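Researcher: I've got a protein sequence and the SMILES for molybdenum atom. Could you write out the 3D structure of the bound complex as structure tokens? I'd like something to compare against our soaking experiments later this week.
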Amino acid sequence: MNVASHLFLADLGFPLWLRAAHWINFIFMGLLIRSGIQILSSYPRLYWNDHSQPGTEWARFTKKSIPTDKPWITLDQEVVAPSWLAQPGEKHLGLGRHWHFFSILFWVLNGVVYVILLLATGEWRRLIPTSWSIVPDALHTFVTYLTFHLPPASAFHPYDPLQQLAYAGVVFLLGPFLIVTGAAQSPAVGARWPGFVRLLGGKQFARSLHFLGLLAFIAFLIVHLSLVVITGFGKNMAAIVLGSQDANQGLAVVIGLSIIAATVIGYGVTSRASLVNPRRMQRALGVVIHPVMRVVATKMQPTTQGFTKQDLTAQFLVNGEPPTSNSYAQLLAENFRGYQLEVNGLVEQPLSLSLVTLAAMGSTEQITRHECIQGWTSIGAWQGVPMTAILAACHPTAEARYAIFWSYSDDTEGLPFYESIDLSILKEPGTYLAYALNDAPLPVPHGAPLRLRAETQLGFKMVKWIKSIEFVTDYRPIRGGQGGSREDEKFYDQSAGI
Ligand SMILES: Nc1nc2c(c(=O)[nH]1)N[C@H]1C(S)=C(S)[C@@H](COP(=O)(O)O)O[C@H]1N2
Ligand SMILES: [Mo]
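Model: Sure. Here is the predicted complex with molybdenum atom in place.
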């Protein structure tokens, strides 16, 4: 240690900003773990490859089995998450995601401020090893702990070598690892940087790694908390809360335990509030996350994802119940010869298009990974009409900001399924109306005769069994006002790039 750094850390006290960052980190890591469990519970199976085929999961957290003798939809696989463990609990994937993204913003902000101050003040010197001798020293400490002994006081500077390595690892390796594997869960990121997701072994591999990162963090947490207690709870709390082991231990323990209790109560109260008035929580958290999500969702132009026919999923998973109406049954009975896609609303030229006319308007063929909000993926080869061809033919007026895709099918409230898509997303090359999957006409479960594909978006936006497309200024006057059936009923965010 040079003289300057020695002076800096002379009293080995922890400055206030460092203690504050530690507690803020505690609060948001807890929220991230809780909401992460909520997200996992909507499809509690982990895979190594992007096909998510039933029976191929390496881990599953449900006794539910996937039926093999009858059609099933992926929504059936969602399980109830206990509210004491998950944020907010029940089957609230939508709000779990809101909590997760809300927490990420503050957790990352806190982490960035922490690292900047760490580097600026010289505090990094006790975290980042500067000599390889720390490795044998840490091993030595490990053996000491293993034989149920504590290292001598002289081994702490203020951390013992093993502790220092563990902390540095959590801050500079595990934290970034969780951010990177988490980012790979976004369809917008995957469509914009397919190489990045491939580097992580694909979306499901990254999802599995994200989960293993969580386990690593929980393991660290258990050891960390145990050692705080074992190696001298009072003096450790004095250092953590008041900045020095010599500070008032009783006061430190009271303050520390109060912060922990308040945090736990805070989790309970905010979870409860989410369950009692989910719409209000969706709106409140949406104020923070929606603008950020929108940027990711609309500013990431897709490139080709680089899949080939060798990559196709054998049994492309299905979500959503098909239409039950007579009008749809009639269309199906005559093989959709009478089908007309209606394009209306804020357009200069309303359209009514048969499948033959549509196919003549242009075509695109894309092999892509479909990403359901629940977490599963499948890879398919789609054929369809680029949405830009429709835009060129109907000319949305200057006021048009969204297209509403109306379906022949009903949502869980028995009303027509619908979703809104931003105009900027409609103009992307990855947005098209698909009429074929894997070289065959679109099967009914996948949306026959026409379904939306928007390759930077989550699956729920890609309306199947399309009846009409309506251009509007605002989605708020429509139905629940949140921008789609899933936003209205399941509290998903209108922006679906993550
Ligand atoms: N009409 C309608 N479209 C829908 C749904 C639905 O329930 N009804 N589910 C959505 C969801 S959540 C997903 S993941 C995809 C699934 O598409 P797939 O069944 O072709 O895999 O369709 C989307 N489109
Ligand atoms: Mo989905």
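Model: Residues 309-490 form a domain with the Sulfite Oxidase; Chain A, domain 2 fold (CATH 3.90.420.10). DSSP finds 16 helices and twelve strands in the chain.
Researcher: Great, I'll pass this along to the crystallography team.
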